[in-house]
Amino acid sequence: MIGELFKNFFGQMGFLDNGSFNATSFLLRLGLPEQHEMGVLLVEEKALECQIAAMLRLIGVQPNVRGWRYIVDGVKLVAADEELAHHMTKELYPAIAAKHDTTTSRVERCIRHAIEWAYTNGNPDMLKHYLGNIAAYDKGKATNAAFIAGLASWCREWRKRKRNGSSSGER
To answer: How deeply is 6 buried, as exposed, middle or buried, from its count of CB atoms within 10 A (0-12, 13-18, 19+)?
Structure first.
């Protein structure tokens, strides 16, 4: 389902080669040299951010929900360093708060609000698809740490599949 969304979007933009994303054509369109390493990292980060955004939308969390941006940033950080999932209050929330010039308690509360929104108004089938059965049994929903770690784990697997299945034109 997500793959089709990306294929349609990037296909319309002219960034697909035989159904696979072509980072070179994307970089050239941005005006960057095709071997520009920072450009490749930028493309990979934007692709990950698009993947997280698509997952959240499919789960039922829309960008206007408080906490959306914090979850996207949290998932990106935990996908890069899974140890952060074990240090939410001491490392992850402060990093997100510093980036958005807010407090750690606001970050935590907004993420919790978005997760509650997902479990009350979202798509239960998509929640189960991306997160499995990680809900806290006493509350019926995932904790902030479990939600972010679950999405980050899914993103790491997505990246592995993407890299292993990438064509020779991709980096």
So the answer is: middle
Q: Dihedral of CA 133/104/156/16: which sign?
A: positive
Answer for the pair 29, 53: CB distance below 8 angstroms, yes or no.
no
Give this prediction's pTM. Answer: 0.70
Nearest to 113 by CA among 61, 38, 58: 61
Determine phi and psi for 21, rounding to 5 degrees.
-65, 135
**Average per-residue pLDDT in the chain?**
78
Query: What is d(CA 26, CA 161) in angstroms, rounded to the nearest whole number?
Result: 20
**pLDDT confidence of residue 90:** 93
Helix (H) or strand (E) holding 41: helix 37-59
Instruction: Answer yes or no: is pLDDT of 81 > 80.
Output: yes
